[in-house]
């Protein structure tokens, strides 16, 4: 399908040369330390993690998936993509807490929040699971690139799977996370350009916005132009309860850690930011651009539907956005478009290669195998692990057609069964390691019965996904809540140390009181204003900024609304539908309000924490080897 000229090949080749060659500028930085190889030395300004968040949310299979849900469901299909809105809340809750923990990974965070054997079991399990999951995702994304190569050039699928991934591995092995994040920045620019260009070209090719909407109305498919075309409260393809479930998963999920598979990747971006403020803005901006991207894609895909409305095979219509680019763009721009596809692919591959290596190096090798390993040795282990992940991903990719349905099932369950425990571990002091482990075990066992076994034996008809979610969550809670309450809480010494360092949101009253009694933090009553408190505080002392206040809640509540307005408003604006301009303007104004309200507080929080960060890092590195909680050396 691709019609490449010499100029197109030049553009695509120049892009690859820039990506691979540019990485070697960061080779010397990456080899300095484990922190540099995996976190870019924790020194990045907010816009670099933001670009990386966007780029890693944009994989080769992403346009296929979004094309599929928009072609099948119309504008309301955008809600399938709204799970990314966890970043709206997470930016001001979980990112703030996680960045202050200084944990390299979610697995390492488990041994800060919890203690003893349970915490170590969690860390080992989560590290091994993440090594596997990153290898699997690499295979998943790689096989999608293989299909694109077959579409564009008629290549065998394995060529598109292996060659671009090997090219990515060159700069990832050389420059580590420095190469990943700087590559993401450049790749993000190219990807945004191509997404906007192809979407606009698609709308123009269909005759313009009025012609797109007019044709869809003539087809009797006017409901496709509404984001709220519900089919009933409980019935149909798009019931209200499904939509509410998606909102709950996305918005409340931002209060926890690990409620979305994206969290594990973005946790690395959070820790690479140079301050708590930069971490928050990086996650927020990256998530916002991701949903704006979805709005552009939706406009182009609706234009594609208006031109070719009767494609029945999902495998065919999922390639709709790629067809717009390869079939409609002129010579020269086709190469730019393919360069953008490479950008989308390279950013995701490099992220998961580096992240999988991080979990093995930090959480398995350094924690349990050789805690005394030096910085050079850890970087070397990271590079060898990257290579192993690369080779393993090829096997997963080549098997993907046979195992996809099973692994999609497993991926979905990771969110369903552990969603609530991932929130409780952040918000509730009494939740312990044994409760979290019980949640994992219950999920792995009960989910098979609910989703596969019982329906297969005719006990009941297969349930819709949203009902499965609530049922699995309830059954899991029936296990992990009693286990939590029947086992001992985490030791107060550990909880107080964790609380003083991270200042989590939620039900932490007994721990807060103990931290005040020990003189580790100030009592909120002592830091209160002498006179009436201003409605919106603009000047903060460090002690005042540590408390969770109405300013935080304004940012938390408004941010998901902003994200929804941007996502839907951009599509309506491009199709010249009523309300599009107003929605985008409202989103911009509300974004300004959030910044005006929260920025002074984030600056105060960051300044206070940065003054203590060096001491916290030293404590963290002194607690690399696992010892029993009763030993003085254990943190």
Walk me through this protein's architecture.
By secondary structure, this protein is mainly α. It has a single domain, classed as Sodium/glucose cotransporter, CATH 1.20.1730.10. Helices cover 73% and strands 0% of the residues. It contains 26 helices and no strands. The chain is globular and about 70 Å long. The model is unreliable at 628-635 (pLDDT under 50).
What percent strand?
under 5%
Q: pLDDT below 50 for ≥5 consecutive residues: which ranges?
A: 628-635
Judging from the principal axes of the Cα atoms, what is the shape? globular
CATH top level label: Mainly Alpha
Structural class designation? mainly alpha
- What is the CATH superfamily label? Sodium/glucose cotransporter
Profile the largest sheet: none
How many strands? 0
CATH architecture: Up-down Bundle
**How many DSSP helices?**
26
What is the mean pLDDT? 86
Distance between the termini: 59 Å
- Spatial extent as radius of gyration: 24 Å
Proportion of helical residues: over 70%
CATH fold label: Sodium/glucose cotransporter
Topology as H/E string? HHHHHHHHHHHHHHHHHHHHHHHHHH
Question: Please, how many domains?
Answer: 1
